[in-house]
Design brief:
A 13-stranded antiparallel sheet has the order 1-9-10-11-12-13-14-15-3-4-5-6-7. A hairpin with a 2-residue loop joins strand 10 and strand 11. It is an alpha+beta fold. The relative contact order is 0.20. The termini are far apart.
């Protein structure tokens, strides 16, 4: 299973160079006044373990396992992925600026795989976003945060104030959509990562909930 996963990573890396994404545009939203200087993604802010059933779809390949995310300090998380049978596949520590692999099985120990995991989880676990512009639509307050060539659009539900979507762009191209279903600010019951430039989807469904 891991070997077929690796092959899909390699194929997707080649296809990625051939695919051109459309320039991202915010639709059905209007500028809004706002006083917020920063907004936060608090879904991984608890010191308790976050444990999810993980499903990864890469083109026609499907991989499932258990994903554990633990906050080590204010800037760093530890992430471990195991198979459904409990065998460790990869274990790493990650922050906005650092990435340390503690363990990886040989089939996954490839640069394209490591870079994919590093990028996805740096975006998922990013907590603070300085606000450059504010928008709104009927359902959400939308905050635009810019960082060099990267931009993030964060959608907060107007009724409950919960973060439900992050759209990550680079060079004005839509890269990853993060969709959250949650009942409280510090824990997402489910998370969906959908790549826009090639066919990789990751779905996380909670197993144990933090208090």
């Amino acid at each position: 299973m891991c070997r077929s996963l690796l092959q899909s990573f390699l194929y997707s890396g080649i296809l990625l160079m051939l695919i051109s994404c459309k320039t991202f545009q915010l639709i059905d939203a209007k500028p809004a006044s706002g006083s917020k200087k920063t907004v936060e993604n608090l879904y991984f802010s608890s010191p308790e373990d976050y444990v999810y059933k993980c499903q990864i779809d890469i083109y026609k390949n499907h991989v499932s396992g258990i994903l554990i995310i633990k906050k080590l300090n204010e800037t760093t998380h530890r992430v471990a992925l195991t198979s459904d049978f409990g065998n460790k596949l990869i274990d790493f520590e990650i922050s906005d600026n650092d990435f340390k692999v503690n363990y990886v099985i040989p089939d996954l120990d490839k640069k394209i795989v490591i870079n994919f995991l590093r990028n996805d989880f740096q975006q998922l676990l990013k907590r603070q976003y300085p606000v450059n512009e504010t928008f709104e639509n009927a359902q959400s307050n939308i905050y635009l945060s810019k960082e060099d060539k990267k931009a993030y659009y964060l959608f907060f539900n107007k009724e409950n104030g919960l973060l439900n979507t992050i759209i990550y762009t680079k060079n004005n191209k839509e890269k990853i959509d993060f969709t959250f279903e949650a009942k409280k600010h510090i824990f997402a019951d489910s998370i969906h990562l959908q790549h826009k430039d090639f066919k990789i989807n990751i779905k996380l469904v909670q197993i144990t909930e933090t208090e």
